């Protein structure tokens, strides 16, 4: 694996009034790796991620994403990244094809490119028969796969996934992770948050956030050795419990 | 530019896909135009009229027959005493009481002078004033030498009769047809309300669904997003105007004396003002409900202070000054001037430039308050 840094975070902090959601975090993510960003609800994961994707201004500290400062070169950051939020965020009242056309279009793809990409995408996902169906009528698992593919339309260097598998069945989750692996093999960096500790095992490296700070950051195996436990689940419980 | 086209395409698809909204956008305004134009009239007709004839003479019957012949008055009943008539006024059965005194005919002939007493229900002061004028005209027509004593029922206003023959000539609407006056105004109201509500709800809807966050992580520029979002509603506004003008011309035979192109030119800029307001509301609301309430607040304020229903000239000075901030006021003024008076650009240049100023200022604020970053 190349050890080129693609995300560099230095002392990043976000305060809402008197509450510090993200407290002085620093970490690097390397090109092509699957980086798991874990933490309990309210630990500050989503806030940290929002700063990295340029929709939330850091209170202090700095972050470089794909080499661009998130504070000053926000638009360049946005060109280099894909994002899939935990809330399904495609248009329910548009068809699969229309959604792809719209998102491709606003990322600056040409009509011809969009046509080709759409064709490839629906074949890969096996959605040829429902391409003209409204997205709102699809099962959740399909929607998630579709929004992952749409987040990759413009071939971003990094893709941010915010709890991408929330609420889907184990089989679909597995398929989803196969898609993530396939994408990572192409060299795309994956930055993923999750609550499922079995998914954490699939990551190259994971960080665990507790109450706004990063408590641990290493490969899953190293973490298990360090805390002397059998699974990531136990690592997580140990860290979260230490705080309380 | 290409990005904007993609947004416009998406917006139009969503508008035409929403089967619940389509009739609201296209049918309801027309129904409103048809109904409101016929109903919202200031003409006072069917005045509830009663009389007390103490004279029972040829002259008194002749006077009453004048009222019977008028389409403005509806004779409810005749009473034998003032007390009885007053009671009916209290119950609301009648609004006007004409009392003809004893020896009315005799005084009229012998002394060339007679008194009549008229009582008018003046709870609605404006209506009472109009009724007063109608009654005076009939009595003056009956005999210019009859002196009328008009007692307004609630006050003791004593109105001196004026024996001047008036030959009114009504300019720009010589048949005094209220529809001619109201239809252009109501058309303004429809174009405004529809575009204001639709635009103010639109971006909030994306906020609620979570798609706005997805849009905000794309490299899309603020102005691209705003133009792409508002353009479809701008087109819709012009479509509504077209349909409304057609109905005004065909159904209500409202004259369009001025240039139609001028109306469109003005409307296209006016719509930018309304869409800008909608967008500002959208930016500052978190839910569609909130956006709806704020839009209603402004819509009602704008409409009541637009001169559409009550003339601006009769408002107190401070209120008149407030109307200067009201975009609808300018639109009502201009569309009436152009349609009914045949005004040209130089006649409307002052309100026109006010609207241009608002369009620039409000859309500037709209783009500025639209935040991609928190």
Q: Mean pLDDT of chain B, as a whole number?
A: 83
Radius of gyration of chain A: 18 Å
Question: N- to C-terminal separation of chain A?
Answer: 37 Å
Could you list the spans of chain A in which at least 5 consecutive residues all have pLDDT below 50? none
Provide the residue-averaged pLDDT of chain A. Answer: 90
Range of helix content of chain A: 25-40%
The CATH homologous superfamily of chain A is named: P-loop containing nucleotide triphosphate hydrolases
Order of helices and strands of chain B: HHHEHEHEHEHEEHHHHHHHH
Contiguous runs where pLDDT drops below 50 for at least 5 residues of chain B? 147-155, 158-164
Keywords (chain A): ATP-binding, Nucleotide-binding
Domain ABC transporter (chain A): 7-236
Organism (chain A): Flavobacterium cellulosilyticum
Pfam family, one (chain A): ABC_tran
What do these coordinates show?
- The complex is a heterodimer of chains A (244) and B (374).
- Chain A has one domain (32-45, 80-243): 3-Layer(aba) Sandwich (Rossmann fold).
- By secondary structure, chain A is of the alpha/beta class.
- The relative contact order of chain A is 0.17.
- Helix content of chain A is 39%, strand content 27%.
- In chain A, helix 3 (96-106) crosses helix 4, helix 5 runs parallel beside helix 6 and helix 8 (220-227) packs across helix 9 (232-243).
- In chain A, the strands form two sheets. A six-stranded mixed sheet of chain A has the order 6-7-8-3-9-10, sandwiched between helices. Chain A has a four-stranded antiparallel sheet with strand order 2-1-4-5, covered by helices on one side.
- With 374 residues, chain B is an alpha/beta fold.
- Chain B folds into two domains: 2-40 and 176-369, no CATH class; 47-159, 3-Layer(aba) Sandwich (abc type-2 transporter like fold).
- A six-stranded mixed sheet of chain B has the order 2-1-3-4-5-6, sandwiched between helices.
- In chain B, a hairpin with a 5-residue loop joins strand 5 and strand 6.
- In chain B, helix 8 packs antiparallel against helix 14 (327-341), helix 11 packs parallel to helix 15 (345-369) and helix 14 packs antiparallel against helix 15 (345-369).
- The longest helix of chain B is centred in the middle third of the chain and has 32 residues, at 178-209.
- The radius of gyration of chain B is 28 Å and the shape is elongated.
- Chain A binds chain B through residues 50, 53-57, 74-76, 78-79, 81, 83, 85, 87-94, 98, 101-103, 105-108, and chain B through 2-3, 5-7, 9-10, 13-14, 17-18, 209-211, 213-221, 372-374.
């Amino acid at each position: 694996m190349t050890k080129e840094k693609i995300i560099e975070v230095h002392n990043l902090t976000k305060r809402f009034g008197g509450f510090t959601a993200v407290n002085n975090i620093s970490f690097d993510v390397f090109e092509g790796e699957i980086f798991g960003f874990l933490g309990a609800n309210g630990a500050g994961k989503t806030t940290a991620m929002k700063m990295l994707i340029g929709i939330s201004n850091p209170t202090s500290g700095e972050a470089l994403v794909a080499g661009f400062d998130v504070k000053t070169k926000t638009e360049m950051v946005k060109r280099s990244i894909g994002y899939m939020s935990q809330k399904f965020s495609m248009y329910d009242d548009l068809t699969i094809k229309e959604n792809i056309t719209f998102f491709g279009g606003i990322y600056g793809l040409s009509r011809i490119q969009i046509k080709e990409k759409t064709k490839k995408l629906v074949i890969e996902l096996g959605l040829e028969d429902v391409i003209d169906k409204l997205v709102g009528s699809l099962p959740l698992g399909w929607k998630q796969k579709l929004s992952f593919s749409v987040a990759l339309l413009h071939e971003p260097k990094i893709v941010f996934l915010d709890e991408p598998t929330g609420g889907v069945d184990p089989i679909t989750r597995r398929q989803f992770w196969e898609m993530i692996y396939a994408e990572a093999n192409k060299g795309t960096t994956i930055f993923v948050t999750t609550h499922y500790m079995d998914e954490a095992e699939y990551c190259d490296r994971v960080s665990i956030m507790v109450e706004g700070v990063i408590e641990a950051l290493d490969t899953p195996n190293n973490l298990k050795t360090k805390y002397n436990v059998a699974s990531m689940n136990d690592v997580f419980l140990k860290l979260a419990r230490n705080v309380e | 530019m290409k990005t904007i086209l993609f947004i416009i395409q998406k917006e139009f698809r969503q508008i035409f896909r929403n089967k619940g909204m389509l009739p609201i956008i296209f049918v309801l305004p027309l129904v409103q135009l048809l109904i409101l134009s016929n109903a919202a009239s200031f003409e006072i007709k069917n005045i509830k009229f009663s009389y007390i004839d103490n004279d029972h003479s040829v002259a008194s019957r002749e006077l009453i027959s004048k009222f019977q012949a008028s389409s403005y008055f509806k004779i409810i009943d005749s009473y034998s005493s003032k007390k009885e008539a007053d009671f009916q006024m209290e119950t609301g059965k009648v609004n006007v009481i004409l009392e003809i005194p004893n020896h009315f005919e005799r005084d009229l002939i012998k002394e060339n002078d007679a008194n009549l007493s008229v009582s008018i229900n003046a709870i609605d002061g404006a209506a009472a004033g109009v009724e007063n004028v109608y009654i005076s005209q009939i009595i003056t027509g009956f005999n210019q030498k009859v002196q009328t004593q008009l007692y307004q029922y609630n006050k003791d206003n004593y109105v001196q009769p004026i024996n001047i023959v008036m030959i009114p000539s009504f300019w720009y609407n010589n048949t005094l047809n209220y529809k001619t006056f109201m239809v252009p105004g109501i058309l303004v109201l429809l174009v405004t309300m529809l575009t204001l509500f639709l635009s103010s709800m639109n971006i909030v809807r994306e906020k609620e669904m979570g798609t706005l966050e997805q849009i905000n992580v794309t490299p899309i520029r603020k102005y691209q997003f705003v133009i792409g979002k508002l353009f479809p509603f701008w087109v819709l506004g012009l479509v509504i105007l077209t349909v409304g003008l057609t109905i005004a011309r065909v159904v209500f035979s409202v004259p369009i004396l001025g240039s139609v192109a001028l109306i469109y030119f003005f409307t296209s800029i006016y719509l930018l003002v309304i869409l800008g307001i909608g967008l500002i509301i959208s930016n500052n609301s978190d839910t569609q409900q909130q956006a709806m309430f704020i839009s209603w607040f402004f819509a009602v304020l704008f409409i009541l202070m637009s001169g559409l229903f009550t003339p601006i000239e009769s408002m107190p000075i401070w209120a008149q000054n407030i109307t200067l901030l009201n975009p609808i006021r300018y639109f009502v003024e201009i569309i009436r001037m152009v349609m009914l008076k045949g005004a040209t650009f130089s006649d409307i240049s002052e309100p026109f430039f006010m609207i241009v100023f608002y369009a620039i200022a409000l859309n500037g604020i709209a783009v500025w308050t639209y935040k991609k970053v928190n």
